[in-house]
């Protein structure tokens, strides 16, 4: 079921403009969430803002944003914060296009679905979408989300457009600082056998591959608690590293191949 859009505005390419609506592409609403409960009364524990010096609770009307300047705070009212709003609060204006393959995965943050907001803008939306697809490019723009301007990437996908927020330059760490430490060279024979193992375990992608077993175990525990039963989920035993765990790589890979062959034979008999 489609969720209500949390942002509405305009998509603009040069003189072409259309109203659009944007919704998150992913959801965490199905996750098991917990409240903090008073063990004695079984009532929920709620939080309140209190003055860090006096310890007294602060009312909503007395709360204000403050910028720290070495122990002193510059106070900013809501109307002053609204005054700094940029055009990107309401408009996604695409001024730059780049080949899709030039943007590495690490720059991508959160995905959103962008659709026309009403029938009136569908033609303009479709033109922008199909032109990007035909040129095999993505659009780069900016958008204010939560009072912070984000760089975004617009990628045509099917009938719509996926909007990716992008990480800032100072948020992405240099991979060479980590990967350059790895100096091992792979033995060609080991590589060949490892490739066979991978080929035997290669399948088409399915969402079932990314189920959350921890979520499922939590639901089992909750269901058992409702029935007055003890914990029905056994704790996972994590093997500790030791010298005895170090085995011959070739022997381990060949054993993996044998295991894969037996599974394939069992499936074929079914």
Explain this structure to me?
With 270 residues, this protein is α+β, with helices and mostly antiparallel strands. It contains six helices and ten strands; from the N terminus they run ββββαβββαβββαααα. The strands form two sheets. It has an eight-stranded mixed sheet. Strands 3-4 form a two-stranded antiparallel ribbon. A hairpin with a 2-residue loop joins strand 9 (148-157) and strand 10. Helix 4 (188-200) packs parallel to helix 6. The longest helix has 21 residues, at 249-269. The chain starts with 6 loop residues before the first strand and ends with a helix. Residues 242-246 have low confidence and may be disordered.
Set down the secondary structure blueprint.
Blueprint lengths: L6 E7 L2 E9 L40 E5 L2 E5 L1 H6 L7 E3 L2 E4 L8 E9 L5 H14 L1 E9 L2 E10 L2 E7 L9 H4 L8 H13 L12 H14 L22 H21 L1
Parallel strand pairs: 1-5
Antiparallel strand pairs: 1-2, 2-7, 3-4, 6-8, 7-10, 8-9, 9-10
Helix pairs in contact: 4-6
């Amino acid at each position: 079921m489609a969720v209500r859009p949390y942002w509405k505005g305009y998509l603009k390419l040069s003189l072409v403009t259309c109203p659009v609506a944007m919704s998150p592409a992913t959801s965490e609403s199905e996750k098991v969430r917990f409240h903090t409960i008073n063990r004695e009364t079984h009532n929920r524990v709620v939080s309140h803002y209190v003055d860090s010096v006096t310890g007294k609770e602060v009312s909503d009307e007395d709360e204000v944003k403050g910028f720290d300047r070495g122990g002193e705070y510059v106070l900013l009212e809501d109307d002053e914060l609204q005054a700094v709003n940029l055009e990107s609060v309401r408009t996604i204006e695409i001024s730059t296009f780049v080949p899709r393959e030039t943007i590495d995965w690490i720059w991508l943050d959160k995905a959103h679905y962008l659709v026309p907001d009403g029938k009136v803008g569908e033609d303009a939306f479709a033109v922008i979408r199909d032109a990007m697809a035909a040129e095999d490019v993505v659009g780069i723009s900016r958008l204010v989300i939560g009072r912070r301007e984000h760089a975004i990437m617009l990628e045509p996908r099917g009938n719509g457009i996926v909007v990716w927020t992008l990480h800032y330059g100072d948020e992405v760490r240099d991979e060479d600082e980590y990967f350059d430490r790895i100096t091992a060279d792979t033995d060609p024979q080991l590589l060949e056998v490892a490739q066979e193992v991978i080929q035997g375990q290669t399948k088409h992608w399915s969402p079932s591959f990314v189920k959350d077993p921890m979520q499922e175990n939590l639901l089992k525990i909750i269901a058992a608690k409702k029935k007055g039963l003890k914990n029905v989920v056994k704790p996972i035993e994590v093997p500790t590293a030791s010298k005895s765990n170090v085995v011959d790589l070739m022997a381990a890979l060949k054993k993996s191949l044998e295991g894969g062959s037996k599974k394939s034979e069992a499936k074929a008999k079914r």
